[in-house]
Amino acid sequence: MVCDAAPTAGRSESGDPASSHGQTLSHHQGPDPKPSTKEHSIDRFCYQYLQMVSPPEYPPGDLVKSSRVQNEIFERIFAAQSAPPPKMARLQLRALKELVQRIQESVGDDESDEYAVSDEFMHRIGELMSMPRTSELDEAQHKCIVSYRLSLLEPPAMIDILENRSLIAASGTTGLRTWEAGLHLGQYLCMNGHLVRGKRVLELGAGTGYLSVLCAKYLGAAHVTATDGYEEVVDSLSDNLALNNVQWSYDPSPLTSDATVCPKLLKWGHALMGTEEESWNRGQKVHLVLGADITYDQRANPPLVATLRELLHLFPDAKILVAATQRNETTSVVFRELCSQNGLCLEEHAFSLDQIPKHVPDRDVLTPYYTLSMPIHIYYISLAGRPDGPS
């Protein structure tokens, strides 16, 4: 059976990922907490640039022409990137040229003695233009650090992810970039931190490890097992864990390691326990299972549902939260029907970012940024007969 409960009171659905690369994110996940101000426009531009939003929302020229603002922008996002990799060099050059153009267009003839493009901007442009050029095709083969700022944390914090938004590995995995469903589920968890705090978390289809880092470093998880079905993705998880100073180990036992995250290969549909094993994952209990954008491939849904069912039989008190982007109605229906056929109950916890701004300080802007062109559903999945949902 599929227990289609009504959306949680006061919340509604929103969100999307897959096809967002290259789209303008002029309106992220919801309205800004307060009417836009000039100072907010500087923050917004810097955060979007660091998150590699393309194109970012540039602050108005009459603001950027100020030497103080130019210095602030340079120190916040360009100063630390003195020798960027080719892809970042291209993005940095594009951003600097756009800023210079806006400054020049905003300076009137009678203001030329008062305002000018900063020496730092012009010097950096010269450096970037003298760098060896590489083709965009070659650039697409390399990863860059993408910085996601989480304004719902107190204080706001950054998660740095080494990823490639334009590359799908030869194995076919899409786990080399962070998708919008992961960002959306991350916002939900930031607002419902009690679901993670002190819990042992298992992430399915961890990809870049964004949610695992969030839970382990900022939401107080006791331990996180970050799993994926592709060895290439599991191997790369350690890079992002180290990048965020998160202790990790391939050994899940707390008796042998102080690590808070354990990267692990987990292929859906394969039995979690072999005939010679007394327990799964060294007997470590699981309280919360997370999955973001793991239902998009209809072919992968049967083994995924089998794994969800086995996990709930192994850990009947565990909660499962899945964020699913609805790219087409058929995929959503197939997943729901498979859950019903396997004795799993789905309860949708509709989550709208419209109510988030009241949680964001007046001085702040809502981050991270992601598009809303397709809805993102958040499902609580349980064994039929136990649809009590997160609490």
Describe the 3D structure.
The chain is of the alpha/beta class and 391 residues long. It has 2 domains: 26-138, no CATH class; 146-383, Rossmann fold (3-Layer(aba) Sandwich). It is 32% helix and 14% strand. The strands form 2 sheets. It has a 7-stranded mixed β-sheet, with helices on both faces. Strands 1-2 form a two-stranded antiparallel sheet. The protein is elongated, with a radius of gyration of 23 Å. This is Putative methyltransferase-domain-containing protein. One of its GO terms (molecular function) is S-adenosylmethionine-dependent methyltransferase activity.
Summarize this structure briefly:
With 391 residues, the protein is α/β, with parallel strands linked by helices.
Could you give the topology of this structure?
Layout: H1 38-50, H2 61-64, H3 67-78, H4 86-106, H5 119-129, H6 136-139, E1 144-150, E2 157-163, H7 180-191, E3 200-204, H8 210-218, E4 223-228, H9 231-243, E5 261-265, E6 288-292, H10 301-314, E7 319-325, H11 329-341, E8 344-348, E9 376-383
What's the domain count?
Answer: 2
**Estimated radius of gyration:** 23 Å
Largest sheet: 7 strands, mixed
How much helical structure, as a percent, in the residues? 25-40%
- Mind telling me which CATH architecture of the largest domain this is? 3-Layer(aba) Sandwich
Unreliable stretches: 5-35, 168-172
- Alpha-beta classification: alpha/beta
Q: How much of the polypeptide forms β-strand, as a percent range?
A: 5-15%
Mean pLDDT over the residues:
84
Number of strands: 9
CATH fold type of the largest domain: Rossmann fold
Order of helices and strands: HHHHHHEEHEHEHEEHEHEE
- Give the helix tally: 11
In the sheet with the most strands, the strands line up as 5-4-3-6-7-9-8
**CATH first level of the largest domain:** Alpha Beta
For CATH, the homologous superfamily of the largest domain is named as: Vaccinia Virus protein VP39
- Give the CA-based shape: elongated
Q: How far is the first residue's CA from the last residue's CA?
A: 22 Å
